[in-house]
Amino acid sequence: MSSNSRAGRPRDQRTHAAILDAAEHLILETGYATTSVTAIAARAGVGKDAIYRRWSGKPELVYEALFTRVDLGPVPDEGTVEADVTALVEALIAEFSAPAAAIALPGLLADFAADPKLRAVLRDSFLAPVKSRMGEIFERARVRGEIGDDIAIDLVLDTIAGAIFFHLGILGEPVTADLATRLGAIITTGITR
Amino acid sequence: MSSNSRAGRPRDQRTHAAILDAAEHLILETGYATTSVTAIAARAGVGKDAIYRRWSGKPELVYEALFTRVDLGPVPDEGTVEADVTALVEALIAEFSAPAAAIALPGLLADFAADPKLRAVLRDSFLAPVKSRMGEIFERARVRGEIGDDIAIDLVLDTIAGAIFFHLGILGEPVTADLATRLGAIITTGITR
């Protein structure tokens, strides 16, 4: 490895972070649809080629800027599946309702859904971190005998993520204090007595 | 009423239907994002003013074309809340996975969510028919003692609609034979034993 490439890495990381920050600021100021790669490049003080070297386009860049830089903390382990699912829902609510994320999410997911290549990576990018956390929670619940071993984890994940995305992102409902508790209860014990 | 306005009405209805049909065909052929009011007007053989007299723009027009012309049939009444919710989920799956609807839904909902005026009518337009059906189902379940009288109907509705929209519309998962049964079970009895 040449000293040149070693010296270059920190500057490269600064450029990378500056592009992500520029995207986040533009979305907060003007919305997702009107934020273009050209505008992000200008705001970050780089050429468009510096962006297309790193990302396939705006959706992947915005996904990285808004949904990969948050520390999720340890996996909830509160002794019951209902408490753990509620804690997971709470973390997702916080992530989806962060100002730039709330603005970008509907248009960003529509862009991912409309492109077959991007759609194919949705489960591995957007959903992978929460699926992995949910897997740990469900394994502990299975060992405790709270749930069976036939849980369709992808469908439960889509139900939780879909409920939060639809409620907050599409409908724009406010985040009430009991939202996570109510959603956690629907998922774990359902609506019947 | 003049004979002139009487004679004009059927032609007006034909124009209205031709515009809705043109929108549906263009979405099937080219997708939602690239379907413009200009293209819909040209395809229907009308001026753009004929469209803007009837709708505020593309989102409201596409919503009417794809989501108001389906006959929902009678409200499910199969004796248990789980069977009724499953039937409701089945009808929503059919509606959301119809070819043009599946193509348009992510972009259409993103357009509704991004415009404060449109977002404000989402619950009264998109969700009103299914909420009314769910209200009947829950009232019968309450009388049978299956559910309490403290069910947050809007949140249950958002959970069901969000789960189906996210699973099919965003992730593009296939409609499996047991999807409605599994989702109906998650909502009514939850994932715990």
Automatic annotation (TrEMBL), chains A, B:
Keywords: DNA-binding, Transcription, Transcription regulation. InterPro entries: Homeodomain-like_sf, HTH-type_TetR-like_transc_reg, HTH_TetR, Tet_transcr_reg_TetR-rel_C_sf, TetR_C. The keyword Transcription regulation applies. Residues 36-55 bind DNA. The keyword Transcription applies. Residues 13-73 form the HTH tetR-type domain. It comes from the Bacteria. This is TetR/AcrR family transcriptional regulator. The lineage of its organism: Bacteria, Bacillati, Actinomycetota, Actinomycetes, Mycobacteriales.
